[in-house]
Design goal:
The protein has 63 residues and is an all-alpha fold. The protein has a domain of 44 residues. Helices cover 63% and strands 0% of the residues. It has 2 helices and no strands. Helix 1 packs antiparallel against helix 2. It is globular.
Length: 63
């Protein structure tokens, strides 16, 4: 089994957070898809905040 370093995991989460926000911007805020994406957005925001990532520049949704 391949182990992922903390740095690689953090990079993956930052990339997913950024990508997810790009999709959220395109979606209708009232759609079920947006609501599902928002759940993951919140999860990633918590993970990144707990990892001491400054989301000031990364968070374009700001919800």
């Amino acid at each position: 089994m391949v182990e992922v370093s903390d740095k690689e995991l953090l990079q993956k989460n930052v990339e997913e957070f950024s990508r997810l926000q790009s999709y959220m911007i395109l979606a209708d805020k009232e759609s079920e898809i947006y609501k599902a994406m928002k759940i993951r957005y919140i999860e990633l925001k918590v993970i990144l905040t707990a990892s001491s990532v400054n989301l000031t520049e990364l968070d374009v949704i700001k919800e």
